[in-house]
Design brief:
- By secondary structure, the chain is mainly α.
- It has one domain.
- It is 70% helix and 0% strand.
- α2 packs antiparallel against α4 and α4 crosses α5.
- The longest helix has 19 residues.
- The chain starts with a helix and ends in a 5-residue tail after the last helix.
Length: 107
């Protein structure tokens, strides 16, 4: 994240492209393989990893919008166009399940 922030400052990348890079490079690596470990936000012991990811998303949202640390997080995340961690993890697991259901049966 720090290297990307430095690159953005040097090269003058627009905030829209910065959000695309954050989503493609950082979030895809941080949220790799939730099909194996994410059971949903209703499982009590499972929220530790989602909380860690949410902290990263909060930092990314501040970097994308250029807001101060004292700005309300809800407004920052909404303006950045990033989604909360639990919703992204649920969506990835849902898409994986749909892909499994589309596989041909070997009956």
């Amino acid at each position: 994240m720090g290297r990307l922030r430095r690159l953005t400052g040097q090269m003058g990348i627009s905030l829209v492209n910065y959000r695309k890079i954050v989503t493609a490079c950082i979030q895809s690596v941080a949220m790799f393989g939730p099909e194996l470990w994410w059971e949903g936000d209703w499982v009590v012991g499972n929220m530790g990893r989602a909380d860690e990811l949410q902290l990263q998303i909060n930092q990314q949202a501040r970097a994308v919008t250029g807001c101060f640390r004292t700005t309300d997080l809800g407004a920052v995340v909404m303006e950045s166009g990033l989604r909360i961690a639990a919703a992204q993890l649920d969506n990835r697991v849902r898409r994986f399940g749909q892909g499994l259901l589309r596989l041909p049966s070997d009956s």
